[in-house]
Design brief:
Helix content: 10-25%
Shape: globular
Order of helices and strands: EEEHEEEEEEHEEEE
Distance between the termini: 28 Å
Number of strands: 13
Strand order of the largest sheet: 4-5-6-7-13-12-11-10
Number of helices: 2
């Protein structure tokens, strides 16, 4: 699996304009499929645990896709460097550099979640289409999506 993250584009061969058929053709059938029904919308979550990714499509009440394809992954490669195993300070330094090079205001939303045996931190960088989860201050998982402009 190609884990190269391209801001505004996607992850590897999966871009934010990819269709379900393209994803199935590229990655094969998912190991599990979960459907979640909400108020005036529903979501399909296609899990490829063998590849360490999940693909999520959101649909509105009329079964029209929303502009929200999300890719969950336990690994990201950016500029030929893997983020797996990086600590909070190194990750934030990389992301700050991304913002600076693209002349984008560096900002994020943050949430800290305490569990019995570990602490999870969530950082949302909507302006570059990235959410990071850190477990005990180390990279744990990410979601990439089309940035909010």
């Amino acid at each position: 699996m190609d884990y190269n993250f391209e801001i505004g584009e996607g992850l590897g061969k999966i871009n934010f304009e990819s269709t379900k058929d393209y994803i199935f053709q590229t990655l094969g059938k998912p190991i599990t499929v979960n459907k979640t029904v909400g108020n005036k919308c529903y979501t399909f979550d296609y899990d490829y645990d063998n590849l360490g990714i999940g693909i999520v499509f959101d649909y509105d009440e009329f079964a029209e896709p929303k502009n929200t394809l999300h890719i969950h992954t336990d690994n990201i490669v950016f500029n030929n460097k893997t983020w797996k195993g990086l600590n909070r300070n190194n990750l934030l330094k990389i992301i700050r550099t991304i913002h600076k090079k693209r002349k984008i205001n560096y900002k994020y939303d943050y949430e800290k979640i305490e569990f019995e045996d570990f602490t999870q931190k969530e950082y949302n960088f909507d302006n570059i289409g990235l959410t990071l989860w850190l477990k005990n201050n180390l990279f744990d998982e990410a979601v990439v999506y089309k940035p909010e402009i």
